[in-house]
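Entry type: protein chain
Record version: 2
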Amino acid sequence: MSENFFAYISRMRYIGRWSLMRNALPENIQEHSHMTAVIAHALGVIRRDIFGTDCDPNECAAVALFHDCSEILTGDLPTPIKYHSRSIQQAYREVERLACEKLMDTLPKELRGAYEPIMTGETEKRLHDIVKAADKLSAYIKCIEERRAGNDEFISAEKQTRKLLEESPMPEVAYFLEHFIPAFELTLDELGTIES
């Protein structure tokens, strides 16, 4: 049983997100984790290269890749339920912790030291702000994409998420919102094609 880790990780694609809402563009946690990792890497680069604060973007990306891995075992609990009360939040954190431990147990002992810090350890805690911001930005982009696909179901979520992002104390988030989010409103023709 100690070599099932990557088989579990590959099952992220079967866990759907946004289960309480009608989706024009269904999203699973594998797709979401990829986009969150891309954004977390960008936020790390912005932190380091724009704001001059020591940061390893590769670490940011690695933590983000695994940030929802517990949902392989728990499923994706909808946000309104997950954050309904402090007691539910605490109980769900404990369930997530147990699920991560179960996943760690599926790795050979020799490899656990490499994965534990990014999934449940000090690296994960140290980079929590960047990964949480990347997670929120990924959700915001999903809302934009749903609206652009003609789905009004996400309009309220888009407004709420934008407000939270604008209230973020992180300068990296403000930078990303200003410089990169506007392009998500463009069509492929408006973005332009790569020409030789």
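Comment: The domain at 5-191 is CATH 1.10.3210.10 (Hypothetical protein af1432).
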